[in-house]
Structure formats: structure tokens, C-alpha cells
């Protein structure tokens, strides 16, 4: 049902008291299986959106599928966009972004600078090109109103713990780091669709590009 990743190993030996004393310092993150994770994501975003000020909505950013979704019918499109990020080479098909939301980096963006796959942080800012327009749509899965931008963002600034790193720009907080929408998936996705009317198999092949992060609403610390 879940995958567990121990961030700091627990001590060996049979000393129960020693184990209890050290357990507080040991952290395990659990990743639910896909359907549960998507349900948690929807619930997390719904609750988050409800706490936003009036007329402020999450921004939904669709990954760049480079034309691979062109020509799909509505049913196919909904199916593809409902799939989890592990079906697209660790690149989410879309992201609902709220300033200040907890995030996890999903690729080794700059390991030498402390921004690696699995790094936890906070979304500080998303930069869109000048002239970007937004329209409001209601998401059927979460019943949440989201903003759809007319253009993809250039980059996002994330805040990650980098205690020994230098600032990327003079005067900027050293914990702020940019991640770009042009980040490519690790591998090409091969998504099987419903058969054609004549029974022939159909597939979508794409290596989407997007911002290399995901919502941390499904990541539980125990």
C-alpha cells in the first residue's frame, strides 16, 4: 500500500529505552499508492483553496506535452491529466500552485547547491510572462475553482534549506532558488488509451517539460 523512506536510520541493538530516545530524531516519509495519493492531493488543494482570501485561487499550470495531446477527445484528455507523476518520468501533468504551499523537488536540479530530488521546501513565487491572462474553471475532481493562465510560467522561486550556500543574487535570501518550466521528464511516457473504434490500440508518447516539483500534501511525517 505504501512506500516508506527512512531519512535517518534508527539505532541498532535491543536497548528499548535507547531506541525510544533516538526515535524522535528518526523521520519516515510515506508515499501512498497512486489512487490514495491523488485523493489526498485533491482534498489538500480543496482545503487550501477554501482558506485563501476572496478572489484568490490556485493557479493550474499544465505541463508542456509538446503537441502530444493535440487531437485527443475530452475523455482521453481527462484520463491523461488524471494520471500521477510517476507515469510521466516524475513530471506531474499539471500543478496547482499556491504561494507558500509546501513542495518537494522531483529532480536533481542543482545537487551541489543543495537542490536535489526529494528536497523539501516552500513555493515562494511563480513568474509569468508579461501579458499573461487567466480564466477561472472549476475542477471536477476536487470541486475547486482554479486559474488557468494563458501562458506557461518562466520559473518559480522555491525556499529550501541551504545553510552553507551562497545567494544566487546579491541581496537575495540564500535559501531562495529558481526552478524552470523547461525541466524535462526523466524518460518518455507511453500512455495506453482506450482502443480505437476499429479495435486498434492507441497510445500517447511524450516527455513533458514543467517545473520540477510536486505538492507535498501527500507527504506525511510520522
Automatic annotation (TrEMBL):
Domain of life where this protein originates: Eukaryota
Name of the protein in question: Uncharacterized protein
Amino acid at each position: 500500500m505504501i512506500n516508506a523512506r527512512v531519512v535517518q536510520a534508527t539505532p541498532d541493538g535491543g536497548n528499548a529505552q535507547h531506541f525510544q530516545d533516538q526515535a524522535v530524531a528518526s523521520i519516515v516519509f510515506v508515499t501512498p499508492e497512486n489512487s490514495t495519493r491523488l485523493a489526498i492531493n485533491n482534498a489538500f488543494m480543496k482545503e487550501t483553496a477554501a482558506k485563501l482570501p476572496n478572489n484568490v485561487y490556485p493557479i493550474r499550470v499544465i505541463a508542456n506535452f509538446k503537441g502530444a495531446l493535440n487531437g485527443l477527445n475530452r475523455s482521453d484528455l481527462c484520463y491523461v491529466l488524471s494520471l500521477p507523476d510517476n507515469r510521466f518520468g516524475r513530471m506531474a501533468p499539471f500543478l496547482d500552485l499556491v504561494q507558500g504551499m509546501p513542495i518537494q523537488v522531483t529532480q536533481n536540479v542543482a545537487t551541489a547547491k543543495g537542490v536535489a530530488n526529494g528536497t523539501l521546501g516552500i513555493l515562494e513565487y511563480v513568474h509569468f510572462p508579461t501579458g499573461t491572462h487567466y480564466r477561472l474553471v472549476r475542477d471536477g475532481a476536487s470541486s475547486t475553482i482554479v486559474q488557468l493562465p494563458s501562458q506557461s510560467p518562466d520559473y518559480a522561486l522555491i525556499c529550501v534549506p541551504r545553510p552553507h550556500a551562497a545567494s544566487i543574487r546579491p541581496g537575495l535570501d540564500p535559501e531562495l532558488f529558481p526552478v524552470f518550466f523547461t525541466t524535462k521528464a526523466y524518460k518518455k511516457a507511453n500512455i495506453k488509451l482506450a482502443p480505437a473504434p476499429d479495435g486498434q490500440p492507441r497510445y500517447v508518447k511524450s516527455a513533458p517539460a514543467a517545473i520540477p516539483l510536486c505538492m507535498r500534501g501527500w507527504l506525511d511525517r510520522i
